[in-house]
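Q: Structure tokens for this one, please.
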Amino acid sequence: MQQLDFTVLSNEKIAKDIYQLRIANCKLRIAAPGQFVNLQIDGCYLRRPISVCDCSEDALTLIYKVVGQGTARLAQYRAGESINALTGLGNGYTIVPAERPLLIGGGVGVPPLYYLAKKLLEAGQEPIALLGFNAIDDVFYKDEFAALCETVVKTGGYVTDALPGLAYDALYCCGPEPMLKAVYNAALDVPARYSFERRMACGFGACMVCSCKTITGYKRICKEGPILTKEEILWT
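A: Here is the predicted structure, written as tokens:
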């Protein structure tokens, strides 16, 4: 974990209530896709966890949804301003041997799968992206994913409706927990990794607020997670 001050490069609305924040990246290296940062937002006591969408030598890209006071304030940041972040948090996705892994994202669960798709391509795999949104106005990063891999966008209904028409030999999933559970129950019996969300206070395992019970005992979603394998998940 590192605590760094970053310079905002851009902060733009890209869909309904969805913003893309790019911050200068001179020192940071994200160890694995699926990790997140915890942002200190002016006027907010607790930091806000935001998953990493992309990481390059020049910039760290974060995508977030405005849902409350903190993210509403975050949307007001402008280029040139400074923002503090705890970085490199969480375990991230481990890449499993496969030929055609399926990436399933729902809403703001989509962003970390973009960086994952890049890493899978670097590993010689051919990922498929299945992106689920509530409505057309909510769709973002469709073209960005399509430039990398085969991409299916589902709006309305259930993202699992598209599963029967797809061939895959591994699965990575990120989104709201009801969607994760539906995918878990509907997907083929293949190696699978699921990214979970919990309310967090510290973001690095000290406060225990985000703990959840797994088959191997309690795990802190911010530390031993947010990625869990399908074998260790206990649904409540």
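A few notes: The chain has four helices and 14 strands. The two ends are 30 Å apart (CA to CA).
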